[in-house]
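Subject: for your reference before the review

Hello V.,

The reviewers asked for a structural picture of the protein, and I figured it would be easier to keep everything in one thread rather than splitting it across files. Below is the amino acid sequence we used in the manuscript, unchanged from the supplementary table.
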Amino acid sequence: MPERFAMKSLIHLFLAVQSAVFVFAACAHFGVFGDRDDPGAAVAESIIAVVLLAGLALTFTGPAGARPVALVAQGFALLGTLIGVTLVLTVGPRETFDVVVHVVMLALLIAGLAVTYRAPQALESARGA
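And here is what came back from the structure prediction:
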């Protein structure tokens, strides 16, 4: 039981941190922190943040539903981020801030997806021990 709680808590932590990064990026692109005004990026990041926050909220409904909800939310966020990376690298503007934020987003999403995907194996091995 403690292993199951720890795994679910780790999934919650990833979703919360991922959401916070997207909220930060959206605020930056809405111009809250200076002159990085990019409404298109801000709207996309806001939508992704809402999806991740909804995923986080839904993972509290029960242990069986946490994994699929987290996988869908993070998968959607990863797809959107890959589109954002493509736009940053091809269309621009290619600013250091945008590149760093997208690298952080990708790293968090890939790590979160890996942890979430492996969650059932960890839970099964904990039950068998």
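For the response letter, the relevant points are probably these. Residues 96-128 form the longest helix (33 residues). The two ends are 12 Å apart (CA to CA).

Happy to draft the paragraph if you're swamped.

O.
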